[in-house]
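User: tokens in, sequence out, please.
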């Protein structure tokens, strides 16, 4: 486990003002069970005729300086979808369903990229990324619990790998602060952390300047396993694969696949396309481990 040094700082990073047990909703230990149920209930109501699918469930580990994790959060990817034909948008209805269940909803007003929509829903420390694909009718809910710590009491990190909108800083693991002093270099009387001398400012992680995220373009050596691809030029467009009846079943497949770097976490986007009379379901995303572009295309049965 930890050194005595680490033990002494056990409470420094926490802003914990109580534990994460609830005021009407789930306690920390039952958080994952509660969230899974809540998401499936909302998703089922949207498509009573065709049940939602849990495409993948996993956990994000939270670390400090040591390689072994100090905490975990549970993450669920749930898909709701139609067969491979253009479908009317269910996005507004989805957000309304969250609102009616007591979630605070925000629609991300980004430019229309082929009919896709994004939004978020929050309830206490639970959060859901709501996404609707372009024309395919696929709606995905990516939900996560707060981080729970089996042995220590720490605050919530700004990001974990699945929740970061980009690549997590591998120096501070998304905390955005120097992990040697846990961001509070002045608190210990006889110790000054080396990070004070840095321009990034006291306590801030110098690698990401406190953002918790890194730009792989700035640190190209950081993704050595992709050098081969880069040297060979851009990745060719993916060959369309057969074997799926619907975008939803393709999503379940894609969610099990990993990037060349070994990471499976990826914020997938989807669009329904066509090549002649063959409907194509295209998935694209940026790897949440190395930021490489990932793409898969599936041929769906003819309409
Ligand atoms: Zn950092
Ligand atoms: Zn420090
Ligand atoms: Zn990767």
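Assistant: Sequence out:
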């Amino acid at each position: 486990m930890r050194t005595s040094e680490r033990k002494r700082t056990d409470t420094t990073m926490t802003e914990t003002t109580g534990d994460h047990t609830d005021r009407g909703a789930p306690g920390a230990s039952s958080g994952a069970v509660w969230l899974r149920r809540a998401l499936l209930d909302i998703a089922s109501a949207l498509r009573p005729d065709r049940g939602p699918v849990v495409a993948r469930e996993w956990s994000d580990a939270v670390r400090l300086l040591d390689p072994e994790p100090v905490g975990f959060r549970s993450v669920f990817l749930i898909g709701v979808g139609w067969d491979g034909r253009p479908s009317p948008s269910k996005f507004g209805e989805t957000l309304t369903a969250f609102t009616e269940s007591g979630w605070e909803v925000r629609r991300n007003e980004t430019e229309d990229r082929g009919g896709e929509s994004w939004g978020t829903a929050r309830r206490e420390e639970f959060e859901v990324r709501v996404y609707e694909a372009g024309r395919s009718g696929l709606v995905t809910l990516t939900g996560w619990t707060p981080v729970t710590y089996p042995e220590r009491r720490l605050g919530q990190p700004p990001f974990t790998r699945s929740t970061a909108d980009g690549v997590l800083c591998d120096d501070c693991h998304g905390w955005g602060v120097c992990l040697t002093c846990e961001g509070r270099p002045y608190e210990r009387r006889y110790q000054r952390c080396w990070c004070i001398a840095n321009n990034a400012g006291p306590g801030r992680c110098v690698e990401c300047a406190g953002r918790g995220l890194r730009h792989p373009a700035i640190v190209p050596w950081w993704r050595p396993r992709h050098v081969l691809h880069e040297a060979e030029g851009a990745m060719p467009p993916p060959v369309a694969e057969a074997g799926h009846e619907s975008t939803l079943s393709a999503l379940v497949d894609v969610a099990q696949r990993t990037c060349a770097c070994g990471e499976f976490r990826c914020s997938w986007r989807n669009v329904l396309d066509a090549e002649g009379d063959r409907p194509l379901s295209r998935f694209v995303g940026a790897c949440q481990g190395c930021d490489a572009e990932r793409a898969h295309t599936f041929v769906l049965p003819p309409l």
